[in-house]
Amino acid sequence: MSSSQTQSNPHVLALTDGRIDLARGSLERKGRPTASLSSLELRLLQVLLEADGPLGAADLRRGVWGERCSVTPQAVQQLVRRLRKKLEPDPSSPVHLRFVGNGYRLVVDEDSTTHPGVSLADGWIDMRSRRVNRRGLPPVELTELEYQLLHCLLSVPDPIPVEQLLVDVWGYHPKTKSRAPYVTIQRLRDKLEVDPGRPRHLVCVARSGYRFVPQPSRPCVDLGPPLPGFVGRRAELQQIAQWWSAPAGIWCIAGPPGVGKSRLVREGLSRMGRAATFALSVAPSSGLQEVIEALAKTLGVTLTGRPEQDDPTLALAMRGGDPRLVFDGVDPFVGPLLDRIEQWRVFRPNLRVLLTSRRVPRAPALRTTRLASLSPDDAVEMILLGAQRAGYDWRLTTEARQRLAKLASASLDGLPLALELAAEPYAWMGVDAVQAGIHEGDSVLRGQPSASPWMSLEDALRWSIDRLTVAERRGLLEAAVFSRPFDLDEAQAVLGPSAWTTLDALIGHSLLQVARSSDRPTFTMLTTVRAFVLHHLAVDDPGRLRGARARWRNASEPQTLVVLQRG
User: How far apart are CA 500 and CA 191, in angstroms?
Assistant: First the structure.
């Protein structure tokens, strides 16, 4: 069975943009009204959930209608089409109800709260986006067959015989002989392994089959000391001090990739003079369960695997009169984590929690601060500090400082990570070389930071965009036609009448900024985000970008009224 049900409710299935409640027969998707599932659709879901592999049309017919019912194969196909229209972001390219090998398989969204990625020797596999990220190499997509094979191998710790892989992944008859698994395994090794000839992850166990061995990693580590080169953020540091001394509460620092959320928290905590009860930095491939396990280990608690039993135990184990928890980088599971925190607060009302996330969560008891870019003057100071760390002490004229400040704000959005990556590689060549590097942009996106969980700013941006639904990614690409701030009317002219729903989602993911200085809000896409979108998303869907530009030209050009007179 390739689907996964949420741990908290076995009757709820997670989708990429919503969920299915099997008990109520309802389907909830982001931006859409709740839909009801028919009895046949529910039965089809149940049959697929209970299956050990892909099911052909004949199997589905027997499972849904029964042995004696004379239903045609066309009826099965029509039922599949109806269900896909309700489940899929794009029914023409299904991600949940798929045809694999010679049958249908239900693939519920990989629950990012428990298993968002797999660690490799030099990177990780993002299971949600089906992409392999390795240091020094461009990301590589997994094919449908490669993903299904990897998912199957990850589902059990023991080796799986090739004969069983043919049944589970390819959907073949148990007695079928084929070399297809060996070919796919070799392709997968080429993508995952440092040395495919000496595999460390996808290994063959003699006379037993194949198994996947993830890289032992520390997905959750202590937050660590403050990073060098901290500048600005006086108001935000004061807010951290207020959180520290507050009687209770949950505060989230949100912002786009590279804006310096982790830097701020590390610096703020270091100035408090005392350690938090628990301060954790979450790796990009980690999930909620790993975070809970790390917390339990720190508190000396043995988990049962049942939140209703574990949450009181965890809360009561938070010793001291004023427990403080800090979680840095909880983007994939910020919602479920907030649910757990609320349960802890039932037993620890004075609990104080600080989160950082690119996604802006919505919860009644949550206070959120959206972290803005550095000011132009602070951006210049950060570039100068980067040069100093490289061993060069620049002396800038007033004109050079002003020029650098303008470039840092306009081309790098005042993002600390981008500023760091712009300064260090070119410091030995002087300020003119740094300015040229900023104009080039590629080194800033692809450079590797000295202290960051991300391999590059490009990786951080890609990870955020991979978390979007298909509709949201399309909206992001269409919004990239705007090189300046735009309002809702202009957005609707390009994105369509439902533009507000898409804009709201992109703002929630910190990929779009909103200013409400007047009655009509304006929206802005950061230059670094826009450059990434135009470089990468546009390659996959050039027609959509051309269409968005054409709609924007038509909307922005003055309309000329031509009057024809009869002569």
Answer: 39
Report the share of the chain in percent with pLDDT over 70.
82
Residue 550: strand, helix, or coil: helix
Greater model confidence, 1 or 306: 306
In what helix (H) or strand (E) does residue 186 lie, and over which residues does it extend? helix 180-192
User: Which residue from 346, 288, 290, 286 is spatially nearest to 315, judged by alpha carbons?
Assistant: 346
Alpha-carbon torsion, ordered 165, 168, 173, 178, to 10 deg: -30
Query: CB neighbours (10 Å) of residue 179?
Result: 8
Query: What share of the chain in percent tops pLDDT 90?
Result: 18
Residue with tokens 């450079």: 447
- What pLDDT digit, counting tens, does each position of 259-286 carry? 989 889 989 888 887 666 788 888 766 7
- Strands 522-524 and 513-515, how do they pair? antiparallel
What CA–CA distances, in Å, run from 446 to 366, 389, 454, 457, 485?
34, 20, 11, 6, 26
Residues 6+ apart with CB under 8 A from 226: 263, 266, 267, 269, 270
Indicate the residue type of 162. Answer: V
Number of residues written out for the chain: 567
Look at 117 and 393; give whichever has higher pLDDT.
393
**For the chain, what is the mean pLDDT?**
80
Place of tokens 């099965």: 76
* Distance, CA of 441 to CA of 418 (rounded, Å): 10
**Owner of token pair 């959180």:** 243
Residue 7 CB neighbours (<10 A):
16
At 200, which amino acid appears? R
Cα(436)–Cα(438) distance, integer angstroms:
5
Q: How far apart are CA 559 and CA 553, in angstroms?
A: 11
CA–CA gap between residue 82 and residue 95 (Å, rounded): 15
Averaged over 521-545, what is the pLDDT? 87
- DSSP H/E element including 133: strand 131-134
Question: For the residues 513-520, what does the mean pLDDT come to?
Answer: 77
CA–centroid distance for 363 within its chain: 20
Q: Contact at 8 Å (CB) between 373 and 525?
A: no
Give the Cα separation of 302 and 207 in Å (integer).
37
Q: Does residue 46 contact residue 22 with C-beta atoms inside 8 Å?
A: yes
Residue 508 has pLDDT above 70, yes or no: yes
- To which residue do tokens 């298909």 refer? 470
pLDDT of 473 above 80: yes
Percent of residues in the chain assigned helix, strand, coil, to nearest 5: 45, 15, 40
Q: 161-208, pLDDT tens digit by residue? A: 999 898 888 878 888 888 999 999 999 999 999 889 889 899 998 888
Q: What is the pLDDT of residues 549-566, one digit of tens each?
A: 999 988 877 655 445 455
Alpha-carbon distance 466 to 460, whole Å? 10
Rounded to an integer, what distance in angstroms lies between the CA atom of residue 68 and that of residue 379?
A: 73
Query: Tokens representing 523?
Result: 């929206």
Answer yes or no: are the C-beta atoms of 262 and 255 closer than 8 Å.
no
DSSP assignment letter at 468: S
Q: From CA 101, how far away is CA 92, in angstroms rounded? A: 18
